[in-house]
Amino acid sequence: MAGRRTNLALLWASVLALATGAAAFLVGTPSGAWVVVAHGVVSLAIVVLSPWKTVIVGRGLTRRRTGRWLSMGLTAAILLVLATGVLLVTGQVEEVGGLTMMQLHVGFGLLVVSLTLAHTLQRPVPHRAADLSRRNVLHAGGLLAAAAGLWVLIEGILDVALVPGRERRFTGSHEIIDAALVPATQWINDSVQHLDHDSHEIDILGTVHTVAEIEAGGDTVEATLDCTGGWFTTQDWSGTRLDRLIRPDAGMSVVVRSVTGYWRRFPIDQVDRLLLATHIAGRPLPDGNGGPVRLVATDRRGYWWVKWVSAIEVDERPPWWQPPLPTA
After folding, report:
1. Are the beta carbons of 185 and 108 closer than 8 angstroms?
2. DSSP string computed for 101-147
């Protein structure tokens, strides 16, 4: 494969890997598993392209040109992304230096994006009409077919190998069975809150509720908390269902807020799938897991499960009136 076509293919594979990786954070039900599969396939396409890129890099190192260190840094970052991706899938290593493998994988991915942008600006590869020729389209199809075949092979190996990765969820997350081992994780710049069980209050549509009142609801649901940090746990969560406190015709959407300022918006017709939880597996929620009251949002990823709930509002804005992923 010619050097120019290789670089273009790598550029688009990187863009697709970024897009599908970000979209994978939005997946909460098995119907969206194809996004995670697509992320794996396009990432493996980069691996398939590596022999041709190695030749290009080798030629480049024999010439003294500006930006060679940027190219080498980009190559190293891509290798780190692929390495952390493999470790994440297999589950052989859970964390390094206090960071989960998912956090490292995403962090190196963002580094690759910034270095790719700088590399593209420094050494642009202009697109041409001939790039969409039948021959190139067939090459692209062959590349994706090879990557898909490699993905199937790896999945097959994991199925027969005695590695933790074979038990991972469709999102790629690994299971935590014991509720006592669920880690304390926060989104971006949130920090663990230490709220008093007896004095903390939740304002729901202007009416103040105590933690004891939420506990007395007596509702229990089995739900899976699937954290974007790379783990999931299926537990019994107890508290009060939101449809006991909010009418489904009260507005267009429900906004659940945390004492930290964090918030998420939900369709009003899904209040029956939302629970204000005070207990996990029969035990009071620890501070790090959102105690004394957190939201349980069935079939949604962990960043929807608002911790340390302080207020719930209803308004006429549509449910999509928010960033797809929280910004703080």
Report:
1. no
2. HHHHHHHHHHHHHHHHHHHHHHS-----GGGGSHHHHHHHHHHHHHH
Domain count, the chain: 2
At residue 299, φ and ψ (nearest 5 deg) are 65, 25
> How does pLDDT run across 60-86, given as a tens digit for each residue?
666 666 666 777 787 888 888 888 888
At 222 the pLDDT is 97
- pTM attached to this predicted model: 0.83
Binning pLDDT at 50, 70 and 90, where does residue 260 land? very high
- Residue span of the structural domain in which 263 resides: 179-315
| Number of Cβ atoms within 10 Å of the Cβ of 207 | 9
Q: Looking at the structure, do residues 137 and 228 belong to the same domain, yes or no?
A: no
**195-234 pLDDT tens trace:** 999 999 999 999 999 999 999 999 999 999 999 888 999 9
Domain boundary among 175, 195, 227: 175
The domain that holds 297 is classified in CATH as 3.90.420.10
Whether residue 130 sits in one domain with residue 257: no
| Element holding 297 (H helix, E strand) | strand 294-297
Q: For position 125, what pLDDT does the model report?
A: 67
Distance CA 196, CA 211 (A): 10
d(CA 68, CA 261): 44
Cis ω on the peptide bond leading into residue 51 (within 30° of 0)? no
pLDDT digits (tens, 9 = 90+) for 293-307: 999 999 999 999 999
Residue 211 has a CB neighbour count (10 Å cut-off) of 24
Q: What is the rounded CA–CA span in Å between residue 315 and residue 93?
A: 45
- Compute the distance between CA of residue 109 and CA of residue 18 in angstroms, rounded to an integer: 7
Q: Is 274 exposed, middle or buried (0-12, 13-18, 19+ CB in 10 A)?
A: buried
* Rounded average pLDDT over 90-110: 84
